[in-house]
Amino acid sequence: MSKRKLNDATTLADTTTLSDATTIRAASPFWSQRADATIGTSDDTHLSHEDCQGFDDDPMDHTQLPKQTLVDATRLTAGGQTVSQFADEDQTQLPQLLQPDTTRLSRLTSTKQTILKSKPTQDDTHSAGEAYTEFSNIFAHLQASIGQVILGKNRAIRLCLTALIAGGHILLQDEPGTGKTQLAQALSRLCDLDYRRIQFTADLMPTDLLGVSIYHQASDQFTFRPGPVFTHLLLADEINRATPKVQSALLEAMEESQVSVDGQTRPLSKPFIVIATQNGGDLAGTYPLPQAQLDRFTLCVRLGPPSHEASVSILRQANQACRSQQVAPMLTASKLAALTQQAQNVYCSDSIVEYVIRLVEASRHSALIERGSSIRGALGLIRCSQVWAAAEGRNFVIPDDIQALTQPVLVHRIELSPQAQFSGLTPSQALSQALKQVPVPRGEVD
C-alpha cells in the first residue's frame, strides 16, 4: 500500500468523509462502467471487524462497499503497522495520527450518516409510503373532479395537475374548439386562489398586462395601478394572438415572479402560475411565441379531439354553457405549497439524473433537431417526475416516470432541422427518434 503524508488532523478526518454518496451505488448495472473507471485499485478491500463497530445497526452490508470509498478509513485503524509507516516518513506527524478511539468512532459514525443520507432506509420507506399514499389519493381526487367536466382527457388533466403542483407554467396548444379554455378555467377554479383572465389580442399593450402609473393632479403624484399579472393564477387565453412586444412582457414575470414597470421592480404573488392557451401557428392573426418564452413553460399539453364516447356525453350536456363552473375549489395556497414540498422530497437517484441529462443532450446532438432543449427542460423533467412518482404513491422516481413526461416537457423546446422538415417529421416524431438511442437505467434506481 502506498504511503501518504497527512499534514494535520483535519486532513486525516477529511479522508474518511465521503463527499459523494453516489460511490456506494457503483455496483448498480447502470454505473458499472463508470465505477470501473473511477474506483481504482487497492489492497485494502474491506474494513476490519473493529472498524465496523457502530455500523451494526445498519441493514446494509458494508463489507461489500466499493474499495476506494473505505480505504482511507481502513488506514486510520489498521494498527501500529500503518502508523509506523507514517512515522517512518516524518516522526513529527506521529502525535497527530494517534487520536483517541472516541474521535475515530465519531468520525466513522459521521461517515455512515454521509453514506446513507441520500438513500431512503427501510424505516423511511415505510413511513414515507403512508404519506405518499395520501398524496396519491389527493391527486386522484383532484383529477376526478376535473374529469367530470373535461371528458375523455385524463392524461391531459394529469399532466396539468403535475405542472401545477410542481410550480410550473402550462401551455395548452391545439386547434380551436378542443376544450383548452375549459380545462384552463377548471384548473383555475380547482385552486382557491386569486386568478385573472386576459384575452390576448393584436392591439393589447404591455401596460394592459403589467399595469400603469397614473398621474393624479390633486395630489401631484403618480399612482401605480397593477395589471392582471398581479395574481396567483393568470389565464392567458390565445396568447399567440398578441404581438411579440406583449409576449415579451411575460418573460420576467414567468422566470423571476416579478415585473419591472417605470424603473421599479415589483414582486408578484406566490405562487404565480401562468396557464396559457395557444391556437395552431398556421391560423391567421397569430404570432409564434419566441423560443425564450416557450422555454419558460414547464410542459406543453395537446388535447386533440374528443373520443366518440366523450363526444356523445358532451352533446348530452349541451344545455350547460360552461361546464368548468361545476368544479369546486379544493386547493388552498397552503395546501398547494404542502403538496409541492412533499413532491420535492421524492428521491431521485444519480442514475435517474444521469438519464435525464443524457436525454437532453441527445436532443441537442440529433441531426433532426436544429435546437435542442436547454437545462431548464431538464429541471422541469426532474420536478415533474417527482410529482408523477408521488401521484403513484412512491417516494422515489423510476425511469418510467421520466419516459411518461419526456414528450410534454421537451417537445415544445426544440426546433426541427431543415432535414426533418423536408422529411415531413413532426417535432414529436423527431424527438422520439433522437431519444430512443439513450439507454434506460436498469436494476436498482437508488
From TrEMBL:
| Residues of the ATPase AAA-3 domain | 169-299
The record's listing under Gene3D superfamilies reads: Magnesium chelatase subunit I, C-Terminal domain, P-loop containing nucleotide triphosphate hydrolases
Enumerate the Pfam families for this protein. AAA_3 (PF07726), AAA_lid_2 (PF17863)
Record-linked CDD domains? AAA (cd00009)
* InterPro entries linked to this entry: ATPase_AAA-3, CbbQ/NirQ/NorQ/GpvN, ChlI/MoxR_AAA_lid, P-loop_NTPase
Q: Where is the ChlI/MoxR AAA lid domain?
A: 362-431
What protein is this chain from? ATPase AAA
Q: Which organism is it from?
A: Bombiscardovia nodaiensis
> What lineage does UniProt assign to this protein's organism?
Bacteria, Bacillati, Actinomycetota, Actinomycetes, Bifidobacteriales
